[in-house]
Structure formats: C-alpha cells, structure tokens
C-alpha cells in the first residue's frame, strides 16, 4: 500500500514506482471532487499530480432488461486516470507532442499541494485540465524552427 511511511522509490514499487520508470506514463493520485487537494485514499508519494475521482458514475458490464447498468463509485484512481487520459488526448489533438512535453505541460498545469485526510502534505499539486489544454494550444501555435 502507499502509506505515509513510504519515502523512496524502493518502498512503493507498484503502481507509481513502476509508472515513473516508463516513458510517457504518469501516476495519478485520486482526490475528492468536493475537496480536490485531499487524497481519497492513502498517501502516494510517487504520484505526479492529483486529479478528482469521487462520486463518479460509470457503466458496468451488466445489463438489466436490455439496458446498461450504471454504478456510482465512491473513490478510486480509475476515473481520475481516465480523465487525465482524456485531457492528454485533447492536448495531442493539437500537435503530436513528445511524451516529455506532455509530462512537462501537465506538471506546469498543477496548483496547490495535495494532502492526506489527516493533513500530511504531498510534494505535488492538483491538475488543472484547463491550464494543460491552454498550454498545449499555445505550444502547438508556436512557429516551427527549421534547421538548414
């Protein structure tokens, strides 16, 4: 688990420790929608940033009377990660950015500090999707420098 006692990469191997070693992969910590700087679960010191993921309605693989059944998740990182993936998809629709550029823009689009329910502060902030998309638009609009 990702408890407050874990400080180094060797302490938390899955999932953030694994994600941080893979180019183009980021670890997203789930935060509460109504309190976006508060983690939904335990500390995740190796996450890159937080993203709201509470009270999310999602489809299930079940049907009742031919209709899909929807469920409401209290919290978890699944919807937070999916939301961030959607933001990245929108960003790359403007330009085929390198993974390092996406990572930089996402990190530059965070604010505040995420903390645990007990107030322990993490080293990262909460992603502001609007700022990430604005940055992608601005960078995609820059003139290309051609080498001769």
TrEMBL record:
<protein>
    <recommendedName>
        <fullName>subtilisin</fullName>
        <ecNumber>3.4.21.62</ecNumber>
    </recommendedName>
</protein>
<dbReference type="Pfam" id="PF00082">
    <property type="entry name" value="Peptidase_S8"/>
</dbReference>
<dbReference type="InterPro" id="IPR000209">
    <property type="entry name" value="Peptidase_S8/S53_dom"/>
</dbReference>
<dbReference type="InterPro" id="IPR036852">
    <property type="entry name" value="Peptidase_S8/S53_dom_sf"/>
</dbReference>
<feature type="domain" description="Peptidase S8/S53">
    <location>
        <begin position="70"/>
        <end position="113"/>
    </location>
</feature>
<dbReference type="GO" id="GO:0004252">
    <property type="term" value="F:serine-type endopeptidase activity"/>
</dbReference>
<dbReference type="GO" id="GO:0006508">
    <property type="term" value="P:proteolysis"/>
</dbReference>
